[in-house]
Design a protein that fits this description.
By secondary structure, the chain is α/β, with parallel strands linked by helices. The protein contains 14 helices and 16 strands. The protein folds into two domains: about 220 residues, Acetylglutamate kinase-like (Carbamate kinase); about 150 residues, VC0802-like. Helix content is about 40%, strand content about 20%. The protein starts with 9 loop residues before the first strand and ends with a helix. The structure holds aspartic acid (ASP) and magnesium ion (MG).
Length: about 450
């Protein structure tokens, strides 16, 4: 990493709602024009398109139903192209993609597969980037479309492909960086390709991650994530309406937030940016004048309380054994069993004869993680096992929390009428976590926000 010389350009990523229609896309163009250092633009599919493609990929049997989806896809894309003075080239490009897509959708109606699915869902980004490029050109910008599959090398794990960082970096230096000298390059988020040239995807919502990977590979000086909210909020404004956007936040705080369920950024998105300390901006392309949140390595203010995150669907496992009393090795045995069944642990607290832990959310469905039956059986040889559901985790995120005095009273007074099931504190100076019953979670966030942030 020693020779990581930062280039002078900025990468801007636009999410699906930012490129949903002509007006939205035009706002993106203005944002790009307003920052002359923006040389690389990563775009999602137009809003709603990936969902339609997923439907096709699952296999739509009835040809009329398939046609209806194609009509919707055409309407979304044509209604933007309609505004162009030169429509022919872009319409042709979109039609060519739709034609290939029709063949794949028919194939998927007989038999779907992960590989075919990736080829199908990639079409959204492939179309939106043709359109955004032409829109930029018509505004007099020297823009060019680039197929990111030439650079974003992944393994062949369709649907959740892992990027090959060294290869991406080498390919980007060779193919992408030189292009950025002369053009504003418009490219796709979410998609990549394996060594055999098959199209792959990084998983739903993956284009933030793409943008960070690309920013890392071209050694960008900044990464802007344009979405539909003006930055990261102190908490979900649907729970606490007085929540406010945070102007500046450190990588460690932001990772904690993502980790604890703040939905604004894909949790792994920050990793490439973090590796190279690339400042990340999150803002709303609808209201860019409202500003947004900067995520940086070094921030000017490090307040004691920064934000509150809420994560539902927690599973808590409590293990009790009198044998634990003043002996050693009990936890080692417990963790050996958990490791054997690949159960990842999130929070943990212990007492003399018991240990409570929560299970990590490894599935993307948002459902509560389960303790595998066999793991439970083995643990029961060792101790008494209790599993509880319907729990939520509230994380108070801040700075130097373990070095400051006097705030515990305020926190616990706010939570006076809440039944706290577990508290985690001390391992990181950045958080204080509470596990509580899900029905009380919103109330807990609300009162904590009122007491500590308003
Ligand atoms: N278009 C993809 C999705 O909707 C990727 C993204 O937008 O981040 O999941
Ligand atoms: Mg998205």
């Amino acid at each position: 990493m020693g020779d990581y010389a930062v280039s002078a350009f900025n990468v801007a990523k636009f999410g699906g709602t930012s490129v949903a229609n002509f007006d939205a896309m035009s706002r993106c163009a203005t944002i790009i024009e307003n920052n002359p250092t923006t040389k690389l633009v990563v775009s999602s599919a137009c809003s709603g398109v990936t969902n339609l493609l997923v439907e096709l990929a699952l296999g739509v049997q009835n040809p009329n139903d398939r046609d209806a989806i194609f009509t919707e896809l055409k309407t979304i894309h044509y209604s933007i192209i309609e505004h162009f003075s030169d429509q022919q080239k872009t319409k042709q490009a979109v039609d060519d993609i739709l034609e290939i897509l029709a063949g794949m959708a028919e194939a998927a109606s007989f038999q779907s597969s992960d590989k075919l699915t990736d080829h199908i869902v990639a079409c959204g980004e492939l179309m939106s980037t043709h359109i955004l490029t032409q829109l930029m050109i018509e505004r007099g910008i020297q823009a060019v479309r680039f197929d990111i599959r030439e650079v974003l090398r992944t393994n062949g794990d369709f649907g959740k492909a892992e990027p090959n960082i060294p290869e991406i970096s080498a390919l980007a230096q060779q193919k992408l960086s030189p292009l950025c000298q002369d053009y504003v390059v418009i490219t796709q988020g979410f998609i990549g390709s394996d060594v055999d040239g098959n199209t792959t995807t990084l998983g739903r919502g993956g284009s933030d991650y793409s943008a960070a990977l690309i920013a890392e590979a071209v050694k960008a000086c900044g990464l802007e994530i344009w979405t539909d909210v003006p930055g990261i909020y102190t908490t979900d404004p649907r729970i606490a309406p007085k929540a406010t956007p945070i102007p500046e936040i450190s990588f460690s705080e932001a990772s904690e937030m993502a980790n604890f369920g703040a939905k604004i950024l894909h949790p792994s998105t920050l990793l490439p940016a973090l590796r190279h300390k690339i400042p990340v901006f999150v803002g709303s392309s609808r209201e860019p004048e409202k500003g947004g949140t900067w995520i940086r390595q070094q921030v000017e203010s490090a307040p004691l309380f920064r934000a509150l995150a809420l994560r539902n669907n927690q599973t808590m496992v409590t293990l009790r054994s009198l044998d634990m009393f003043q002996t050693y090795g009990f936890l080692a045995q417990v963790f050996a069993i958990l490791a054997k069944y690949q159960v990842s642990v999130d929070l943990i607290t212990t007492s003399e004869v018991s240990v409570s832990l929560t299970l990590d959310q490894t599935n993307t469905s948002g459902q509560a993680p389960e303790l595998p039956v066999d793991a439970r059986a083995e643990l029961e040889q060792l101790c008494n096992v209790e599993v509880e559901h319907n729990l939520s985790l509230v994380a108070l995120i801040g700075n130097k929390m373990s070095a400051k005095k006097g705030y515990a009273k305020q926190v616990f007074t706010a939570l006076e009428d809440v039944n706290l099931r577990m508290i985690c504190y001390g391992a990181s100076p950045h958080n204080l976590c509470f596990l509580l019953e899900s029905q009380e979670a919103k109330h807990a966030v609300e009162v904590l926000h009122r007491e500590l942030f308003e």
